[in-house]
Design goal:
globular, mainly alpha, single chain
């Protein structure tokens, strides 16, 4: 299993689609840096409270276009490098050869695990790149509540970490994003067990992601407030907490994707060769 894990990791990370996905994510980051961060660098030394990188990186503000684009495209980018390889292995005979050499259970477990890892890496590397890039020109000063310069108010989830230990807050949020987007990418693995079109398999995570976004941003109560905004990953995955966080939704959605993935893994292991 160890040998096959290394082989599949190489397939996931040493292909042109991984390069394309990371380049798109980093290009959005550079675009954000050049249009939003670079022009305000001159205000740092003007004698007032310095602008903080924690308020201006792509995950720290809600005012520019680039974070909206990035967090909406995430499920497409994460599924691009490796999302449909399970279907490719089924339809080309590669999977049969792998099963003969390494065993069916090991093969399926590795495919699921590498799908998760590849999705998580594609999600978090551009965010880390943007955070480091922003810190090259803006100081990492601790945000202050009373200045109204932060997207995070005093009542948001984990606000005490943001104002007392902002770097820890960023790390926690990036880990959450990586885990959640990794699980979202495994939905392409699930889809490959029932669909036979590579394009559709790759966009299934995005379709579900966008469906949740539509529900979260359209259904309103009698008072006009959004009723299900907290279920929308495009909102709660942003470190600015674009929509209010409810841990029940985050944990519930993550648990649901994990359970579905485990059920499909179990089903595939019981099938004859697990392939077509």
């Amino acid at each position: 299993m160890k040998y096959y894990f290394k082989l599949e990791m190489k397939r996931a990370f040493c292909n042109r689609y991984m390069v394309i996905a990371l380049l798109i994510g980093c290009a959005i980051s550079v675009w954000h840096f050049w249009e939003y961060v670079w022009p305000i660098r001159m205000y740092v030394g003007m004698g007032e409270y310095p602008l903080s990188s924690f308020n201006k990186w792509m995950g720290g503000e809600n005012y520019s276009l680039q974070p909206n684009i990035y967090f909406m495209l995430l499920p497409l980018l994460t599924a691009l490098p490796y999302g449909s390889t399970w279907l490719f292995d089924q339809t080309t005979g590669y999977g049969n050869q792998a099963i003969v050499r390494h065993g069916q259970k090991a093969y399926i477990r590795v495919k699921y695990l590498v799908t998760f890892i590849s999705g998580a890496v594609v999600a978090i590397l551009p965010l880390l790149f943007d955070f480091i890039l922003t810190n090259l020109v803006l100081p990492a000063t601790c945000p202050q509540r009373g200045l109204s310069l932060s997207a995070i108010g005093g009542t948001e989830c984990m606000a005490e970490y943001f104002y007392m230990h902002p770097l820890l807050y960023v790390i926690i949020y990036i880990v959450i994003d990586g885990i959640f987007l990794g699980l979202f990418t495994t939905l392409s693995f699930v889809a490959a067990n029932y669909l036979r079109n590579h394009f559709i398999v790759k966009i299934v995570p995005f379709l579900i992601y966008f469906f949740l976004y539509c529900i979260g941003t359209t259904i309103k109560g009698e008072d006009g407030a959004l009723l299900f905004s907290s279920m929308c990953p495009a909102g709660f995955l942003r470190p600015t907490q674009y929509f209010p966080i409810e841990w029940s939704w985050i944990i519930g959605e993550a648990a649901f994707m994990l359970v579905v993935g485990i059920m499909v893994l179990h089903r595939s292991k019981k099938q004859e060769m697990g392939l077509i």
